[in-house]
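Hi P.,

Sorry for the delay on this. The queue was packed all week, but I finally got your sequence through. Input first:
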Amino acid sequence: MHELTTTRMNPQIDPTLHIWGWEIPVYLFLGGLVAGIMIISGYFIFKERYKHSYFSCFWLPHISLLLLSAGMFALFLDLEHKLYVWRLYTAFKISSPMSWGSWILILVYPTLLATTLTRIPPAFQNRIKVFDKISTFINQHPTAVKNIGVLSMIVGAILGMYTGVLLSALGARPLWSSAVLWVLFLTSGLSAAAAFVHMITDDVYERELLAKADNGFLIFELFVFAQFIIGLLSSTQMHQNAAHLLLNGPYAAVFWVFVVGMGIIIPLIIQLLAVNHKVKHTPIAPIMVIVGGLILRFVIVSAGQYSHWASAGL
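Then the structure:
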């Protein structure tokens, strides 16, 4: 890790000099979104919906590969020594979040590739013969397909948890020193993924199911937020000051308006009305959830850097 990055990726070296840009929040958001998509598509594959041309099994794994690659590119842009990124795979450092993330991706990409082979879209059929043969073989063994679905859910959960662990492992930032940060990011990723599928699927069953699931994720996310804030307020003075950055400090307006209000409360109300057939399903609520999830990463990353111990008394 130290060979590849400057203090931007290791704020413990000097927490007062370098600030992460847009790359890390985007990476964390796309990683969480892909994690949620992997869990959702894995669930539907396990439930044997891969036998039909439903969106969740048919297109989601392919979209995930593109989104994850975009997230990895954002992370790559943040690296200082880009030509030496391969060195992350020459060793495994148990204390390095970047090392864990690098090796987790070794599991993510093959898992996504396996899920894409359960259903190859017609536009890609007969392009790469070996993929067609593997897909045919997999579909001849229903147990293998179900195992791929389970693997997708497990690896997706690990990826989603990692996006929060990456920050909480950096002890130089009081705001990130929370045992529930990984739960928050995993839940937010699931919510964004459910909203994404709800927004673009043309299948009524999937839209209804994922709208209901997203309502559950949003309610649970509010509960996790409460635990996150209470945990900080019940800790040291430095952690309390970090919590006030979100509650009534310089990040409070963005946090309450865009993360909690626009990203959770308003879409939750709209989707509750939609699933109870009081209003029609609309893409407005899912878009709010997705944008709110992205802003959440920007707020947590930015406020976390501001909350280093040297400024804890501000």
